[in-house]
C-alpha cells in the first residue's frame, strides 16, 4: 500500500525548518564557542554552505525517486543493498539519537521554571508525538507548521530586538563591547574547522524531508524549493542569532553557558514586563525542541518502512494503517528513542551524529555521480543539481576534511556502525536480496553486468509520479491518428501501414520506422497490459510527438516468443508513439500516461464501443482538461461564427487544437475563419476548461 501524498510546499518548509531548530540554536552556540571563540558565527555560516552539495544532491534524487526511506533508499538503489544497509541503519540510529536529544531538550528547558524530571518529560513528549504521527502525516505536518510559525515569530523578535539595541540603543546596558569579537579566530583555523563540523548537526534536519518524499505533492517543485527556502531562513537565523548572543553575553560567558539564548534574553526585551522576554524564549525553545522531535519522529519512522519493503527489515514494518501511516515502523522508532532517552547521556551525541552524517553526505554526493553515469533512461529527476559534477566533488572532499577535524572517537563510532551494518547485511539480508544498484549499470558501460530490474522499478516510479505540466501529452492524444482494422490483417501488416503513414509525416523512410517499432514488439513487463500492444521509437528533430492508434474488434495475433504472461497474445488496441530522440525521459513519461489510460477498468470494452474518432479522443482524455463543442446560432458559441480564430476571446491557458468541419479535421491557424457547425476541440488547464464547459455546454443545455 502506498503512502498518501498530502504534503505541500509549506509542509516541506515546515518539516525541514522545524528539524533544524532546537539544539543548533538554543544549546550548541555555547558549547561550540569553546573551541573557536567569536568565529563560531562564521562556523555556522560555513556549515550552511558546506551542506549545500548534499542538499542539491538529495533534491535531485528525491525528485527522481520519491520514496519513503530517503537516504537509505537512495544509497540502496545507487550503490547496492550493502551500502543501503549501512546507510539505512546508520542514518536511522543517528536520526533517532537526534530526536531523543531534542526531546530531552524539552525537559531541560521546562525544568528552568518547573521542578519536573527531565527524562520523564522527554518520554511523555515521545509518546505524544508517536500518537500524532500514527494519526497521519497531514496532522503531524499541521502541528509542525504551528511550531515553526511560533518559532519564527519569537526568534525574529529576539534577533530584531538584539540588533536594534546593539546598534541603536544603550550599548552599556547590554554590556556590548567591540573587544568581545577580538581576537575573532580565538581557536585558530583548526578551531574554526572543528567548530564547523561540530555545528554541522544543526543543519541535518534540512535533508530529513527526503525520507517523506513519497508523501509530497508535486515533489519536483516542492522538494528543492522547500529545502532551499528552509536553508536560507535557518542560515540567517543562526548567523544573526549567534552574533547577538556573543555580543550580549560576551565571549567568556557564552563558552560556559548551556542556555545562551535564555541568558541573552535577560538583557533584552526591556520593553516587556519583567522576565516576560525570558518566558517567551523558554516557550520558543520548547516549541523548537518539540518541532525537531515531531519532525524527527515523522521522518525517522520511514526508514524501517522502506527497509522492510526491501527485506532488509521484517516486512511487518511495511504495514500501512487506515490512517495512511506506517504504525509498526512508528512504534519501533518510538521505542528506540525512549531507550536512548533512558540509557544515554547528552554528551558527545552531537559530535557522533555529525561525523556519521558527514559520511552519509559524502556517499550521497557520490550517488548522484553514479546515477548520472549509469545512463538509466528511467532515472528522471524533475530537478537537476547545478554545477554537476563539481558540486558533488566539492561535497565529497569537504565531508572528508570535516570528518578528519572531528577527531578519532567519532570516526571510530562511524566505523563501528558500518561494521555492525555489514554484519547485519551479511547474515540477515544477503540471502533475501538479489538486486543491485545503479553502479552496476555504470559497470555495464565498462563491459560488466547490470541489474535490469532496477530500470523496471524506476519506470514504475515514473508512472506513479505522472506527467509533467510541460509534457505535450494532451496535444499528442488530440492529434492522434485513429484507424479501425479487421481481423484479416496481420500484425506485421499493421506495423507496416503505420510506418508508411508516419513516413509521410516525418520524412523518414518507412522501413526505418518499422524496424524501430519491431524492436519494441517483445513484451516489456513494465509496459505490459492485457490486449494492448505499445510500440515506440525515437528519431532526431521531431518537433512534436506523434501517436497512431489502431483498433481491432476481434483482435490481432501478436507473436510473443519466450514470454511468460498470464494473458494471451490477442491484441485489440495498438499504440504507436514516436518521440524526439533528444527527449528520452519525456517519452517514458508519455508512455506511462498511455499505460495509465489502458489500465482503466473495462478499457478494451469501452473503447471498442466507440466508432467515432472524436469520441475516442474524448474518452482517452477523460480528465477534465479537454472539451469539444459545436458552433451553433442562437447559443453562446454562436458569437464565434464567421470570426477569425485569433479574434475570439478564450482563456490564455487553453488551445484550440483542431476543428472538425464536415468530414474534414484540421489544425487551425490564427487566420482560420470559424463557421457554423464547426466542432472545436480545446485543451488546457482544468479551471479554464471548466469555465468553457459552463459557458458553452452547460448553459446551452439549460436553454439559457
Automatic annotation (TrEMBL):
RCK C-terminal domain segment(s): 614-698
GO BP: potassium ion transport
UniProt-listed InterPro entries: AA-permease/SLC12A_dom (IPR004841), APC_superfamily (IPR050367), PTrfase/Anion_transptr (IPR016152), PTS_EIIA_type-2_dom (IPR002178), RCK_C (IPR006037), RCK_C_sf (IPR036721)
PROSITE patterns, A to Z: PTS_EIIA_TYPE_2, RCK_C
Membrane protein topology class: Multi-pass membrane protein
TM ranges: 7-28, 40-59, 92-112, 118-135, 147-169, 181-206, 227-250, 276-299, 320-343, 349-371, 383-405, 411-429
Gene Ontology CC annotations of this record: membrane
Pfam families: AA_permease, TrkA_C
Keywords: Membrane, Transmembrane, Transmembrane helix
SUPFAM superfamilies from the UniProt entry: TrkA C-terminal domain-like (SSF116726)
Ranges for domain PTS EIIA type-2: 475-623
A GO molecular-function descriptor: monoatomic cation transmembrane transporter activity
Name the UniProt record assigns to this protein: Amino acid permease
Organism: Draconibacterium aestuarii
Amino acid at each position: 500500500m502506498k503512502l498518501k501524498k498530502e504534503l505541500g510546499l509549506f509542509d516541506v518548509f515546515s518539516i525541514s525548518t522545524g528539524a533544524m531548530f532546537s539544539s543548533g540554536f538554543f544549546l550548541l552556540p555555547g558549547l561550540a564557542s569553546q573551541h573557536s571563540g567569536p568565529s563560531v558565527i562564521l562556523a555556522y555560516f560555513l556549515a550552511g554552505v558546506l551542506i549545500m552539495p548534499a542538499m542539491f544532491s538529495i533534491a535531485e534524487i528525491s525528485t527522481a525517486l520519491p520514496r519513503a526511506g530517503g537516504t537509505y533508499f537512495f544509497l540502496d538503489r545507487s550503490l547496492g543493498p550493502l551500502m543501503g544497509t549501512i546507510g539505512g541503519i546508520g542514518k536511522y540510529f543517528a536520526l533517532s539519537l537526534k530526536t531523543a536529544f531534542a526531546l530531552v531538550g524539552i525537559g531541560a528547558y521546562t525544568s528552568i521554571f518547573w521542578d519536573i524530571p527531565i527524562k520523564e518529560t522527554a518520554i511523555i513528549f515521545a509518546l505524544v508525538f508517536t500518537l500524532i504521527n500514527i494519526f497521519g502525516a497531514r496532522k503531524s505536518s499541521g502541528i509542525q507548521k504551528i511550531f515553526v510559525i511560533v518559532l519564527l515569530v519569537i526568534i525574529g523578535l529576539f534577533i530584531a530586538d538584539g540588533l536594534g539595541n546593539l546598534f541603536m540603543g544603550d550599548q552599556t546596558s547590554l554590556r556590548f563591547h567591540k573587544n568581545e569579537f577580538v581576537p575573532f579566530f580565538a581557536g585558530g583555523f583548526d578551531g574554526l574547522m572543528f567548530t564547523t563540523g561540530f555545528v554541522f548537526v544543526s543543519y541535518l534536519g534540512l535533508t530529513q524531508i527526503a525520507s517523506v518524499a513519497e508523501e509530497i505533492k508535486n515533489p519536483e517543485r516542492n522538494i528543492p524549493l522547500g529545502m532551499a527556502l528552509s536553508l536560507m531562513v535557518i542560515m540567517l537565523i543562526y548567523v544573526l542569532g549567534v552574533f547577538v548572543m556573543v555580543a550580549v553575553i560576551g565571549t567568556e560567558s557564552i563558552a560556559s553557558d548551556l542556555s545562551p539564548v535564555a541568558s541573552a534574553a535577560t538583557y533584552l526585551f526591556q520593553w516587556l514586563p519583567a522576565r516576560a522576554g525570558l518566558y517567551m524564549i523558554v516557550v520558543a525553545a520548547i516549541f523548537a525542541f518539540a518541532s525537531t522531535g515531531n519532525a524527527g519522529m515523522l521522518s525517522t519512522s520511514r526508514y524501517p518502512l522502506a527497509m522492510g519493503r526491501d527485506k532488509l527489515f521484517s516486512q511487518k514494518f511495511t504495514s500501512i494503517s487506515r490512517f495512511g501511516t506506517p504504525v509498526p515502523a512508528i512504534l519501533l522508532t518510538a521505542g528506540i528513542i525512549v531507550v536512548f532517552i533512558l540509557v544515554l547521556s547528552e554528551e558527545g551525541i552531537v559530535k557522533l551524529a555529525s561525523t556519521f552524517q558527514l559520511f552519509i553526505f559524502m556517499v550521497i554526493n557520490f550517488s548522484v555521480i553514479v546515477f548520472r553515469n549509469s545512463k538509466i533512461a528511467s532515472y528522471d529527476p524533475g530537478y537537476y543539481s547545478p554545477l554537476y559534477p563539481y558540486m558533488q566533488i566539492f561535497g565529497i572532499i569537504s565531508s572528508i576534511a570535516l570528518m578528519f577535524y572531528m577527531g578519532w572517537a567519532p570516526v571510530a563510532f562511524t566505523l563501528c556502525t558500518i561494521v555492525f551494518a555489514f554484519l547485519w547485511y551479511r547474515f540477515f539480508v544477503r540471502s533475501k536480496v538479489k538486486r543491485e544498484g545503479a553502479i552496476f549499470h555504470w559497470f555495464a558501460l565498462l563491459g560488466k553486468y547490470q541489474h535490469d530490474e532496477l530500470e523496471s522499478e524506476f519506470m514504475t516510479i515514473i508512472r506513479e509520479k505522472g506527467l509533467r505540466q510541460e509534457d505535450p501529452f494532451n496535444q499528442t492524444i488530440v492529434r492522434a491518428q485513429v484507424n479501425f482494422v479487421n481481423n484479416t490483417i496481420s500484425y506485421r501488416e499493421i506495423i507496416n501501414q503505420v510506418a508508411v503513414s508516419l513516413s509521410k509525416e516525418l520524412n523518414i523512410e518507412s522501413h526505418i520506422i518499422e524496424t524501430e517499432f519491431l524492436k519494441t514488439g517483445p513484451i516489456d513487463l513494465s509496459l505490459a497490459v492485457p490486449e494492448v500492444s505499445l510500440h515506440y521509437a525515437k528519431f532526431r528533430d521531431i518537433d512534436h510527438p506523434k501517436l497512431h492508434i489502431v483498433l481491432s474488434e476481434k483482435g490481432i495475433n501478436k507473436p510473443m516468443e519466450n514470454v511468460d504472461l498470464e494473458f494471451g497474445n490477442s491484441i485489440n488496441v495498438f499504440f504507436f508513439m514516436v518521440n524526439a530522440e533528444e527527449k528520452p525521459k519525456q517519452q517514458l513519461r508519455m508512455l506511462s500516461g498511455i499505460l495509465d489510460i489502458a489500465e482503466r477498468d473495462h478499457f478494451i470494452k469501452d473503447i471498442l464501443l466507440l466508432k467515432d474518432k472524436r469520441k475516442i479522443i474524448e474518452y482517452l482524455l477523460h480528465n477534465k482538461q479537454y472539451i469539444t463543442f459545436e458552433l451553433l446560432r442562437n447559443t453562446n458559441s454562436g458569437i464565434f461564427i464567421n470570426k477569425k480564430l485569433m479574434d475570439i476571446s478564450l482563456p490564455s491557458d487553453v488551445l484550440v487544437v483542431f476543428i472538425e468541419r464536415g468530414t474534414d479535421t484540421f489544425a487551425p491557424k490564427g487566420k482560420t475563419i470559424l463557421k457554423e457547425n464547426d466542432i472545436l476541440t480545446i485543451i488546457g488547464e482544468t479551471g479554464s476548461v471548466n469555465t468553457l464547459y459552463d459557458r458553452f455546454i452547460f448553459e446551452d443545455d439549460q436553454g439559457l
